[in-house]
Amino acid sequence: MEDHLYMQIVRRLEQDILSGMYGPSDMLPSENTLAARFNVSRVTIRKSLDILKNNGLITAMHGKGYFIKPPQHNRYSFNFDSNTGVDFSHFQKVEIIYPDAETMAALNISADRRVVAFHRVQERAWTPVAYDEKFVPYERGMPTVEIEIKYAEFPELLSARHSPFLLKGSIEIDIAVPPDYVAKALDVPPDKPMLVMRRFLRNRDGVPYGFGRNFLTREFGPVTAESGYSLTHKF
Amino acid sequence: MEDHLYMQIVRRLEQDILSGMYGPSDMLPSENTLAARFNVSRVTIRKSLDILKNNGLITAMHGKGYFIKPPQHNRYSFNFDSNTGVDFSHFQKVEIIYPDAETMAALNISADRRVVAFHRVQERAWTPVAYDEKFVPYERGMPTVEIEIKYAEFPELLSARHSPFLLKGSIEIDIAVPPDYVAKALDVPPDKPMLVMRRFLRNRDGVPYGFGRNFLTREFGPVTAESGYSLTHKF
DNA sequence: AAGTGGTCTAGACCACTTC
DNA sequence: AAGTGGTCTAGACCACTTT
Questions:
Q1: Environment class of residue B21 by beta-carbon count within 10 Å: exposed (0-12), middle (13-18) or buried (19+)?
Q2: For residues A74 and B81, is the Cβ–Cβ distance under 8 A?
Q3: What is the number of other CB atoms lying within 10 angstroms of the CB of residue B201?
């Protein structure tokens, strides 16, 4: 338990709000009222209210007051670890190849430019549930493939060589027929569409740095995302 | 342009960090140093640093200092509006029906309990690209279907009747064969799997309040999500 | 001991809203 | 004019890390 004043107040107000003490779009007591009630300075109250604001419980209106805010259900977020829902990551191979059409487009490179490809099968309970492949443009003077293996993570591989904090990531969740080698490795029938997560890493100027595909079997299950408040503690 | 001191400082530090002035896991100058440099009080500097902290650019270590934080690419978020990527929402019908197996499970109700179902086809450029259906347990004393129509949004419908700030939302993105009436309405071949987003609304105790399915055609495109810093302004 | 971030205070002034 | 949130200050004390 945190024993800081502002945290106590945050938890207290959280409880009050979630318990329905205030109706939707009701007003909270003013900063000065709250400061007096909790016997703290206005600065401390403001710190508490700031946290509630950031967590989406309330919004402040200048000159009016603080209002209860219904949870927003239009922004969803989910974790992607390339390890979530996976017991074991069976490394397949690293190779330097000419990219397929999709990889070419994703990395914005021409057909004669080769890429380093990392392949692995992801298992759960000794059953393959996903296939993950990552592509990085191959550059002369790159460390040998053997050395790359220990950087086989993505984007960690890139972080080691480029300014990591310049990178922006995005994911596209789609449905696609996997390449034959993926279907074979996952032991699923070919020509059957699968859930696929395409990952893109770009720098701030939009220049692609890496591209990855993650094919998920039925056993893997759906991709799940959540919305609503973020609370400082559970009830 | 904001002319507040703390915002000027935030933008300035953002630029410095993103331009690569500090290496990864480098230290920022101390609060006192920054306060002196920008000629503001320590409180103001802390407010600026707090914002950078919340946006994921830095982390503070007690007794040590502030450190540049590489962007995290394991948490992704996306918008779901049931209107994004859609021009026009063609309302199909509202009906009170007995639920299918999936809806029964999602709403945790028995087979003899009826549900109110809302159907609509979502179009882009006069072409159907998605089918959206929502299910709510039917209760005696509910307003008539005609009245419900104006609440045909989801979860707004529920918000009006239940404590809205008690609701938690989640989405499952999956691949599924649509029901015949969906395939027909979207003019896609039956028995072909589609991208589907299942939406769940529960209260804080996990009790289901609403369930929805959103079938996306190939024309709709992938679901896209983003990771990385959240910046206070664009460069 | 010196430096760092973390908490908290009392008070000033401003901008906005309501009466 | 009174009340509200928003910005900013100077200063105190604490907890943690380094030297």
A1: exposed
A2: yes
A3: 27
User: Is B2 within 8 Å of chain A by CB?
Assistant: no
Picking from A76, A79, A198, A204 by the largest number of B CB atoms within 10 A of its own CB, the best residue to mutate is A76
Burial class (CB in 10 A: 0-12, 13-18, 19+), B31: middle
Has residue A43 got a pLDDT over 70?
A: yes
Of A166, A195, A228, the CB nearest to B168: A228
- Structure confidence by residue, pLDDT tens digits, A183-199: 999 999 999 999 999 99
What amino acid is encoded at B2 in this protein?
A: E
Residue among A70, A100, A59, A79 nearest A182 (CA): A100
Contacts of B234 in chain A (CB under 8 A): none
Distance, angstroms, CA A128 to C1' C13? Answer: 65
Q: Which of B52, B174, B229 to mutate against chain A (most A CBs within 10 Å)?
A: B174
* Nearest nucleotide relative to B3: CA against C1': D7
The DSSP call for residue B71 is: P
Distance CA A117, CA A39 (A): 61
Prediction pTM value: 0.88
Amino acid found at A88: F
Please give the helix or strand (H or E) that residue B65 lies within, else none: strand B65-68
Q: Which of A81, A170, A204 sits opposite B224 (nearest CB)?
A: A170
Q: Which of B224, B28, B38 is nearest to A165 (CA)?
A: B28
Give me Rg for the CA atoms of chain A: 24
